[in-house]
């Protein structure tokens, strides 16, 4: 997915193009995108592609196209102090942008299947905190990442104000995802090839809006241990 806007020479020009094409529509989202250089989340040898509106994948490392992240950030309708759960948190790029908006009283959790990607995300987070001018300009809600399958979150975990899933969700897992939300909360996920925004309007009431057609790799099903039991993810 991607290719909806022209490539930029640098991060700011990429954001200018996303604004002009109406992918970035609000000031808070624009500030978060400008504060974190997308190229910092690429491996050195691939950085020349960082400002193209394209997804990037290398081994287990994956970044969605900038136009997709823009739609996700806008759809999440983020505000300071909210709790956020990122399912398939990957490099931590999205979680870090979200953290700039959530501020010091927010909650910022990520679940990632691959332990090597968690290590990569922690290195990138550390680099951002140590080197970025932006870090001093925002009250940052630092993301925390745990390894596990996002379909195995412990049922006694708290619900969240905002949830994003970065892998394709089939209809059979829709209810599971919706139940991670507090009443009033927003879930954004690729559901049956459509980026979808679901708002929980009551204990058993939902509003669903399709945002755009997308192509995401599907969620990986849990592998049960030899005992037949799954390892629940504790957040």
TrEMBL record:
Location(s), subcellular: Cytoplasm
GO MF terms listed in the record are: protein-L-isoaspartate (D-aspartate) O-methyltransferase activity
What superkingdom does the record give? Eukaryota
A GO cellular component entry from the record: cytoplasm
Per UniProt, the keywords (alphabetical) are: Cytoplasm
A Pfam family annotated for this chain is PCMT
Q: Tell me where the transmembrane regions lie.
A: none
What InterPro entries does the database record attribute to this sequence?
A: PCMT, SAM-dependent_MTases_sf
Which CDD domains does the protein's record reference?
AdoMet_MTases
Family statement: Belongs to the methyltransferase superfamily. L-isoaspartyl/D-aspartyl protein methyltransferase family.
- Its recorded name reads PCMTD2 isoform 4
Please spell out the taxonomic lineage of the organism that makes this protein. Answer: Eukaryota, Metazoa, Chordata, Craniata, Vertebrata
């Amino acid at each position: 997915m991607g290719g909806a806007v022209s490539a930029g020479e640098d991060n700011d020009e990429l954001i200018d193009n996303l604004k002009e094409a109406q992918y970035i529509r609000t000031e808070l989202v624009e500030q978060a995108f400008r504060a974190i250089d997308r190229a910092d989340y690429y491996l050195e040898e691939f950085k020349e592609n960082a400002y193209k509106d394209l997804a990037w994948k290398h081994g287990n490392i994956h970044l969605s196209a900038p136009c997709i992240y823009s739609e996700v950030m806008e759809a999440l309708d983020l505000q300071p102090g909210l709790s956020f759960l990122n399912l398939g948190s990957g490099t931590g790029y999205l979680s870090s942008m979200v953290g700039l908006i959530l501020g010091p009283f927010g909650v910022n959790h990520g679940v990632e299947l691959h332990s090597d990607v968690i290590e990569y995300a922690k290195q990138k987070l550390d680099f951002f905190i140590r080197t970025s001018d932006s870090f001093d300009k925002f009250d940052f809600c630092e993301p925390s990442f745990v390894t596990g399958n996002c379909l195995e979150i412990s049922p006694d975990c708290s619900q969240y104000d905002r949830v994003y899933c970065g892998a394709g969700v089939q209809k059979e897992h829709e209810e599971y995802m919706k139940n991670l939300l507090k009443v009033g909360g927003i879930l954004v996920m690729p559901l049956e090839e459509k980026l979808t925004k679901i708002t929980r309007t009551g204990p058993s009431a939902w509003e669903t809006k399709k945002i755009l057609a997308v192509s995401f790799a599907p969620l990986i099903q849990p592998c049960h241990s030899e005992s037949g039991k799954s390892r629940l993810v504790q957040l």
